[in-house]
Amino acid sequence: MHVLIVEDEVSLxxxxxxxxxxxxxxxxxxxxxxxxxxxxxxxxxxxxxLDLGLPDYDGLDLLRETKELEHEPAIIVLTARGxxxxxxxxLGLGADDYLPKPFSLLELQARMQAILRRKFKVKSSVFQxxxxxxxxxxxxxxxxDQEIALTKKEFDLLHYMLLHRKRILTRLxxxxxxxxxxxxxxxxxxxxxxxxxxxxxxxxxxIPSDWLETxxxxxxxxxx
Length: 224
Ligand code: CA
Description:
By secondary structure, this protein is of the alpha/beta class. A five-stranded parallel sheet has the order 2-1-3-4-5, sandwiched between helices. α2 packs parallel to α3. The longest helix is centred in the middle third of the chain and has 15 residues. It is elongated and about 55 Å long. The site of calcium ion has 5 residues, from loops. Calcium ion (CA) binds next to loops.
């Protein structure tokens, strides 16, 4: 999952980044509204953690901007203001949740997982397909209780494709998800094909190869 932290308090932003990276999220950080606006325009985020009190921007304006994106990230509004009106206004504009500061990191994580379940209509953190099981909390993939060893990137790819079952995912979407900000990294779209190839090879021992469709010139679609 690719997360943008929009927060001008350096210590809180650093703490969030550290925690979420540990929890296997990919994080970008914007300390101003302007910076956030630029990042939102070029990257496909799964989550935006949005502080409303920014030095140069009203956070609610940023929320309006994201609602106009084709790819809509889930938004959790963080605010120290604590005012009920903010909460109502934020949710009215389409924020997925609201956390008053200070909040616990575990609370944040629980809210993020709840949003994911709601957004992707999954009932639990365990996914089944073709007799395989992927446990997104334990980060484990198994077949009849036998663990299949995947690399971190292979696991993240499979998890992401399971969340988007039967939808075509472009190479760009998958790369953004696995590598984060492609404009800043040394990016090569072939990387994704290499990881897919390895994943296919590992799963071929257990399930028929038609679980993943290659959509020529576009990307991939998980058929399950
Ligand atoms: Ca602030």
